[in-house]
Specification:
With 123 residues, the protein is mainly β. It is built from two helices and seven strands. A three-stranded mixed β-sheet has the order 1-5-4. The longest helix has 6 residues. The protein is globular, with a radius of gyration of 16 Å. 12% of the residues are buried.
């Protein structure tokens, strides 16, 4: 879900675990929700590759423990805020109802031969 008002990208902790992501860094950041309640974040994970159509865009996410009634973590939504839209070079045309992204020019060096190199291939 894209949110023009969000200054962060947010991922539920259950999805983080389900995807098998690593590199969670602790944080003292707090999140103030619309109802003015305060949530403490579990941590931050950097350079997660997000695929949107044919584009692959690196994004940093803050990780939050959330209550959910979904049975599968992959059914949970992630919140993509202004940092993601800036990296993706998003252009929103409200009149036409269109969203376009050109994304950064990522360079993947010999990733077919060495899949371990993929997470390190950002400009």
């Amino acid at each position: 879900m894209l949110d023009l008002g969000a200054s962060i990208n947010l991922m539920p902790y259950a999805l983080f675990k389900d995807l098998g992501l690593e590199g969670l860094k602790p944080t003292t950041m707090e999140l103030i929700l619309a109802d003015r309640s305060v949530r403490h974040l579990i941590g931050v994970v950097e350079d997660v590759l997000v695929r949107v159509g044919e584009l692959i865009i690196p994004a940093d996410f803050v990780i939050l423990e959330m209550e959910t009634n979904l049975t599968k973590a992959r059914e949970m939504l992630i919140l993509l805020g202004q940092p993601f839209m800036s990296t993706a070079k998003a252009i929103i045309d409200v009149h036409k109802g269109r969203l376009s992204m050109t994304g950064p020019a990522l360079e993947f060096l010999e990733w077919k031969e060495d899949p371990e190199i993929l997470p390190r291939c950002f400009p």
